[in-house]
């Protein structure tokens, strides 16, 4: 009897990771009804992280919070029996939470994720895992900090506007109202980039354009983040020249939310997929598996840079378990795949070349791809790399 461990990421815009796993499981059982299938959906710290935690048995806790431009959205966190909570920025105030997905580079805020964290702290959580991929804002985490009780004031003592542009008016920061549980809470942040907060490789320059920032907006946001770093540094007693955390690799993640997590929450940064694999108990499920199936919407060069399939493959190969992948499309040659620990890829476009049709009919096409996978792999599982 063959045991297959399913650890796919989502097919973005089409299927959740759990739905991918369900479709693959159905296809495998079509060919071999005796196969033992263990489902362990994953994510890389961005959107889908919360769903992966829930699929692993974490209890969802709903919370209504401000979206990236202030409108209320239904989000939440997931909590394990040991009290650890998983919070996903993208679910609270990410790009997909923008009304009509209309980009607002200067005005979008990270307050929503701060509000989710506050709810978790109010409920007694003292261990928080925070996934910060997919943000809509470039506010240096200022919104997160204000949602946790800090006050960001202008020269007249009034609250500054939300968003990165609002930081231009920042005169001083009052941290006295910061949620008291912050000091007693361990924060771990899933972060897969090494950008600093500021400069040509910083949050505004590298990621601002993806959020609608033109060249003038990028310059304006970078200057505002520089000012934010200096004022926060002064408020924490480091001097006004600039906060030491601003240069830390990962400080520029999620429009600078990485910086606020480091500077205010005292967070520790970890690669997203490694963190999710630990959270979901993937390593505990590996022993006894004959094959691991991972995947995502498209296998490409980004897959090799800390995305979920590469992380799953690395962990499985280290345990001596062969790995294959499913995907909508594969843009990597076989040698490159195998260097990443993936022995073969089974894609939807091999069955249906029209991408739009693949997106619409992803589940049945994936089930069909999984039948081919089963025919080739379950009777003679992939040889260990």
UniProtKB/TrEMBL annotation:
<dbReference type="GO" id="GO:0031388">
    <property type="term" value="P:organic acid phosphorylation"/>
</dbReference>
<dbReference type="InterPro" id="IPR018193">
    <property type="entry name" value="Glyc_kinase_flavodox-like_fold"/>
</dbReference>
<dbReference type="InterPro" id="IPR004381">
    <property type="entry name" value="Glycerate_kinase"/>
</dbReference>
<dbReference type="InterPro" id="IPR018197">
    <property type="entry name" value="Glycerate_kinase_RE-like"/>
</dbReference>
<dbReference type="GO" id="GO:0008887">
    <property type="term" value="F:glycerate kinase activity"/>
</dbReference>
<keyword id="KW-0808">Transferase</keyword>
<keyword id="KW-0418">Kinase</keyword>
<dbReference type="InterPro" id="IPR036129">
    <property type="entry name" value="Glycerate_kinase_sf"/>
</dbReference>
<comment type="similarity">
    <text>Belongs to the glycerate kinase type-1 family.</text>
</comment>
<dbReference type="Pfam" id="PF02595">
    <property type="entry name" value="Gly_kinase"/>
</dbReference>
<protein>
    <submittedName>
        <fullName>Glycerate kinase</fullName>
    </submittedName>
</protein>
